Amino acid sequence: QVQLVESGGGLVQAGDSLRLSCAVSGRTLYAMGWFRQAPGKEREFVAAIDVSGSNTYYADSVKGRFTISKNNLKNTVYLQMNSLKPEDTAVYCCAARRPLTMGVAPTEYSYWGQGTQVTVSS
């Protein structure tokens, strides 16, 4: 199957940047997504990328600030987060989808990482 391990979260000030990484194990390639969940809120879609890395899609709340990318040779997916806001505070999880095309709903993904905490202070 596949294992996902996120890293790169931390505590930053509003306006700062962070880059999250998701190391993916396994021989099979997947389309990937990033989701986040804040306390008391439902898990929400952040960004997705297809298996080729050629196509991406973003939630309106992060479009223009976040960039998802992948390096298939390294089996790693990234989420570059710029101009961070306090409302971006959440646990960020990467997810793998068996079809090669993008998905935006949590139910469309089969495998999940443990999550990494991102906290943005005002």
Description of the molecule:
This protein is mostly beta strands and 122 residues long. The chain is built from no helices and eleven strands. The chain has strands spanning 4-7, 10-13, 18-24, 31-37, 44-49, 56-58, 66-71, 76-81, 90-97, 111-112, 116-121. The strands form two sheets. Strands 2, 4, 5, 6, 9, 10 and 11 form a seven-stranded mixed beta sheet that branches. Strands 1-3-8-7 form a four-stranded antiparallel beta sheet, with no helix packed on it. A hairpin with a 6-residue loop joins strand 4 and strand 5. It is globular.
List keywords for this structure.
11 strands; 4-stranded antiparallel sheet; 7-stranded mixed sheet; 122 residues; mainly beta; globular
**Alpha-carbon Rg, integer:** 13 Å
Query: Strand percentage, roughly?
Result: over 45%
Derived from helix and strand composition plus strand pairing, the structural class reads: mainly beta
Task: Give the overall shape, derived from the CA principal axes.
Answer: globular
| End-to-end gap | 40 Å
Low-confidence stretches: none
Tally of helical segments? 0
The largest sheet is: 7 strands, mixed
Order of helices and strands: EEEEEEEEEEE
Overall pLDDT level: 94
